[in-house]
Amino acid sequence: MRTYALVGKSGTGKSYQCLALAREHKIDSIIDDGLLISGNRILAGKSAKHETNKISSVKRAIFAYDEHTEEVTQALENHNPDSILILGTSDRMVEKIAGRLGLPPFEKIFYIEDISSPEEIEIATNMRNRQGKHIIPAPVPEVKKQFSGYFLKSLIIHGKKGQCIEDTIIRPTYSYLGKFRIAPRVISDICRLELKKIPEITNISKIISIPDSNGYIDISIDISLEYPCDIPLTSQKIQTLLSDAIEGSTSIIAKNVNINIKSLSV
């Protein structure tokens, strides 16, 4: 396996530049902030940007947690990439990551100053320091799997030779701009509004939403339906409607929508 590194201070645009750099040098996989990324897929790992404070974020990025390290190491063995690019803020950091993952010595270390202009670095730094925004070098659908409840924005980069690269902009929890919280009542209200669109529903007696540690939620609703109706089809329609509405309004992914039909009205 050929191993490379991209080194630059925090917020100088490494994640923005890494996909174009990888394509130029035919590098097929990337390690960035705890994630193993190949092509348009996140293969393994947990993003350091998901941590609640900067200390935990740094530990996650350098693979200080054994379970995290084992997951990514196993994925590397299964995927067996020909080459890999490791992002870090210093030579020491990328060497530590490579050592934790059992990767061979670097063939080359790139530095952000060699591939970005001073103007590009300044824009990236302002984006980080003033707006608290970070980039993950993977498309939004992939990033959503780890960042349920975060407002994400797609960033399309038009590269050389007409190439288009899709990144994701995110503001991590530990950003100095603060946190936001969506109350369970909001989820309940969204569900009630959406359920009014289903004419077969005659009564909504209970809506419960339970979050898990990864930011996903399970929803359980008790309803009454008008009879006759196609119960399986109506239930499927409700599940799709609620999942789409909640994700569209809050960016929270409803992992399960459980429907309890309490009665049928003739």
Index terms:
266 residues; alpha/beta; 6-stranded mixed sheet; 3-stranded antiparallel sheet; 9 helices; 30% strand; elongated
List the helices and strands and how they pair.
Blueprint (H helix, E strand, L loop, with lengths): L1 E6 L6 H11 L4 E4 L2 E4 L2 E5 L8 H8 L4 H14 L3 E6 L2 H10 L5 E6 H4 L2 H14 L2 E3 L3 H5 L8 E6 L5 E7 L13 H12 L5 E11 L5 E10 L4 H20 L3 E12 L1
Parallel strand pairs: 1-5, 1-6, 2-5, 11-12
Antiparallel strand pairs: 2-3, 3-4, 7-9, 8-9, 10-11
Q: What's the short version?
A:
Helix content is 37%, strand content 30%. The chain has 9 helices and 12 strands.
Describe, in plain words, how this protein is organized in 3D.
The model has no long low-confidence stretch (mean pLDDT 83). With 266 residues, this protein is of the alpha/beta class. Helix 9 links the parallel strand 11 (217-226) and strand 12. It is built from nine helices and twelve strands. It has helices at 14-24, 54-61, 66-79, 91-100, 112-115, 118-131, 140-144, 184-195, 231-250; strands at 2-7, 29-32, 35-38, 41-45, 83-88, 106-111, 134-136, 153-158, 164-170, 201-211, 217-226, 254-265.
